């Protein structure tokens, strides 16, 4: 049962403090106050440049170790993938890479890839047929011309 003899928080939130000597609940002492513009500028200068904590090696190492080994949930991965899919910056970056290839329509297993490569090696189609097929695939995926000149897909 809460002690009803404790004072109310002086910030005006109508909650009781945790101890008899306290005037505020933890964190309520700054409510309603703002820094002056000069004070904000002084804080900004103090934390900019080499004084920025996130640029120090030891702080960066601690931040890196804090996230090391953490895995995203599958639902989170799917949300991130969906968010990146229609982002024009991501699409342009993919096209600018030295080897750009459209995403596969189907995710192939190792056995499926081995069987496909075996069929390709045993294939009896001519070079002109391979060229026509390659051009059709490139046209379907609308791959940039620079990639089309340098590589055959099939």
Please tell me about this protein's structure.
The chain is mostly helical. 49% of the residues lie in helices and 0% in strands. The longest helix has 15 residues, at 127-141. The N and C termini lie far apart (77 Å). The model has no long low-confidence stretch (mean pLDDT 77).
Oligomer: single chain
Number of strands: 0
Structural class: mainly alpha
Strand content: under 5%
Give start-end ranges of low-pLDDT stretches: none
The mean pLDDT is: 77
- Largest sheet descriptor: none
Query: What spatial form do the alpha-carbon principal axes imply?
Result: elongated
The separation of the N and C termini measures 77 Å
SSE order: HHHHHHH
Count helical runs: 7
Radius of gyration: 31 Å
Keywords:
154 residues; mainly alpha; elongated
Give a short synopsis of this structure.
Helix content is 49%, strand content 0%. It is built from seven helices and no strands.
Protein topology:
Elements: H1 37-46, H2 57-67, H3 74-85, H4 88-96, H5 110-122, H6 127-141, H7 145-150
